[in-house]
Amino acid sequence: MKRGDSIIRILLADDHPLVRDGLRSCLEMYENIEVIGEAKTGSEALDKAAELKPDVQRQ
């Protein structure tokens, strides 16, 4: 990571564990991305997003 780059904090949400695991594996290859949490349902994703405050959200 270059100087001045910031970490992008992401919350993963999907009902399939295999999909979440695959996405996490892909994202962990990037130094400037941090997966801060995972959710299995939409309501869990909303609760965790409010708690963890990820950088990337779609509402």
Describe this entry's structure for a reader:
The N and C termini lie far apart (29 Å). The protein has one domain: Response regulator (Rossmann fold, 3-Layer(aba) Sandwich). With 59 residues, it is an alpha+beta fold. Strands 1-2 form a two-stranded parallel ribbon. Helices cover 37% and strands 22% of the residues. The relative contact order is 0.28. The longest helix is centred in the middle third of the chain and has 11 residues. The protein is flat.
Describe this protein with a few key phrases.
59 residues, alpha+beta, Rossmann fold, two-stranded parallel sheet, 2 strands
Give a short summary of the structure.
This protein has 59 residues and is of the alpha+beta class.
The strand line-up of the biggest sheet is: 1-2
Class by alpha and beta content: alpha+beta
The amount of beta strand, in percent, is 15-25%
- CATH fold category name: Rossmann fold
Q: Mean of residue pLDDT?
A: 90
Count every beta strand, where a strand is a DSSP E run of 2 or more residues. 2
Overall shape: it is flat
Q: Uncertain regions: pLDDT < 50 for 5+ in a row?
A: none
Number of domains: 1
Proportion of helical residues: 25-40%
Rg value:
12 Å
Number of helices in the DSSP assignment: 2
Q: Which quaternary structure do these chains form? A: single chain
Corresponding CATH superfamily: Response regulator
Order of SSEs, N→C? Answer: EHEH
Could you give a short account of the major beta sheet?
A: 2 strands, parallel
How far the N terminus sits from the C terminus, by CA atoms, comes to: 29 Å
| CATH hierarchy, class | Alpha Beta
CATH architectural type: 3-Layer(aba) Sandwich
